[in-house]
Amino acid sequence: MKRRKITALLLSCTMAAVLFAGCSSGSKDSADNNAAADSSETESGKSDAAGGKVEISFWDNNADTVRTEIFKQIIAEFEAENPDIKVNFVPVPADQAKSKYDVAIQGGTAPDCGIVSQYWMSDFIIQNALVPLDDYLAGWADADQQLEVFQESIRDMAPDGKTYGLAQTVTIPAVWYNTNILKETNIQVPEDWDEIITAAKKATNKEKGIYGFSLRGGAGNSQQFEQMMYQYSGITQMFDEDGKSTINDPAHVLLLDSFAKIYNVYTPESDITNGATEMISAFDSGSAAMIFHNLGSYGLHRDTLGAENFDSLVTLNSKKDTKVIVSNGCMGVSIFNNSKHPEEAFKFISYLCEKNGSSKFNEKIGQVPCNKEALEDDWVAKAAPIKEAADALLDENTELATLPINVIGYYDLHQNVLVEGFQNVLLGNTSAQEFLNDWADQMTQLKAEYDANVKNK
To answer: Are the C-beta atoms of 104 and 85 separated by less than 8 Å?
Structure first.
């Protein structure tokens, strides 16, 4: 793999793309959303002369019809309970959200509050665009109902260790498996990654067009496999005490080498270029017995296969005999520094994260809420994969490892460098050890630059 030069400051390109891309609405809706976002500053900070209402603006960063409907419902309930506050809702398409936030921040026209991917927080914090919420949290009665593992992860994004967002929803990685295929081949449900590889070999039946596993080898391959590796090893720290990346740990080398050996034998040849969509399609068509994705695809599997024909594994036994969830961050809600009404904005974003708002929103979109009480609602118990994730998150023995998304250059490295290198490992052109050593060297350098230029300044 060709090593590329990594400069000290990558702020302009690092987080300019949306990792968590979702389905945007049609062209007319998108145009309407764009116009609303471009003019939202005129709707922020107003006070109704007759009623004395304070107006705040709120942006959604992943607009679609489902999210817009539920946000409008929650906003109506909030306004009924808080008649002195009016929320101007602006749905922004996912593929434009980051750039629109960037333009608004530079122009001093950011909304009062909005949905912010944890991926973007370092960028926004460095620009002094977000309000620290620690003082507000001290007076919020429901602060202890937030899942601390994700609040801690958000604090870790900030060089000053302050809280610049409230965790609202999280997408948990999971192994999906076809229960019928495993049953027909007398395979016990795997409990670790070694057993998954063994099961993949046994489940493969090329005469029937069935492969034991489908691997994401195209766009997004390296980060998804990064989650698999840390779940396998049980390592929860991305860097050691000397600041060196742990990505080339021997356990990680072993897992990558094992998957390189089963590629195109017990996985489809097309995996080399398949992205998430193709991998999910292989699973939903029954041509792949197992895949590794996240709970965000639950609805697709349910609607295609039927809820009784598949299941998930959210946690697996690691080499350290622990269970680790490897997170690439959450979706949070933040207040922007140009807000004239931060107290009212906090009142609203905290409402979104309390039991009622959190539960309603996450049930509608099929994701995992970051509120403890919401995790115990009836709808969670009825959705088996969500329930498994909820149980794991509420279990004090579950460990959380967060990928180094706060390090400037991390996203760019995955997007522009590691994809081809990962493919070369699958094709046998590069060894797993060589690839991971190179990856580790680059992450160690990025971490040193981040510490020198951002964290320790």
So the answer is: no
The residues, any chain, with a CB within 8 Å of residue 387's CB and separated by 6 or more, are 380, 381
Query: pLDDT, tens digit, for every residue of 38-73?
Result: 544 444 555 544 468 999 999 999 988 989 999 999
* Range in 1-10, 347-356, 411-420 with the lowest mean pLDDT: 1-10
Give me the DSSP letters along 53-87: -EEEEEEESS--HHHHHHHHHHHHHHHHH-TTEEE
The CA distance from 3 to 46, in Å, is 52
DSSP letter, residue 402: E
Report how far residue 34's alpha carbon sits from residue 178's, in angstroms, rounded to the nearest whole number: 41
Q: Residues 395-423: pLDDT tens digits?
A: 989 999 999 999 989 988 998 899 999 99
Q: For Cα atoms 424, 429, 431, give the angle at the middle one, nearest 5 degrees.
A: 85
**What percent of the chain shows pLDDT beyond 90?**
77
Q: Does the model's pTM come out above 0.85?
A: no
User: What is the rounded distance in angstroms from the CA atom of residue 95 to the CA atom of residue 442?
Assistant: 28
CB atoms within 10 A of CB 369: 28
Contact 425, 439 (CB under 8 A): no
Asked if the model's pLDDT at residue 380 lies above 80, the reply is: yes
Please name the helix (run of DSSP H) or strand (run of DSSP E) that holds residue 107, with its range, or none.
Answer: helix 94-107
CA distance 127 to 449: 17
Helix (H, G, I), strand (E, B) or coil at 235: coil
Contact 426, 217 (CB under 8 A): yes
**CA–CA gap between residue 454 and residue 36 (Å, rounded):** 34
At 226-274, the pLDDT tens digits run 999 999 999 999 999 999 999 999 999 999 999 999 999 999 999 999 9
φ and ψ at 95, to 5 degrees?
A: -75, -5
Q: Which residues contact 173 (CB under 8 A, 6 or more apart)?
A: 224, 227, 231, 292, 293, 294, 314, 325, 326, 327
Domains of the chain, start order: 54-171+329-397 (3.40.190.10), 173-327+404-456 (3.40.190.10)
Instruction: Mark residue 366 as left, alpha or beta (left: phi above 0; alpha: psi -120 to 50; beta: remaining).
Output: left
DSSP-assigned letter for residue 187: P
- Write the DSSP string, 275-322: -HHHHHHHHHTTSBSEEEEEGGGHHHHHHHH-GGGEEEES--B-TTS-
CA-derived radius of gyration, the chain: 22
The upper half-sphere exposure of residue 114, i.e. CA atoms within 13 Å in the direction of its Cβ, equals 38
- Per DSSP, the three-state class of 373 is coil
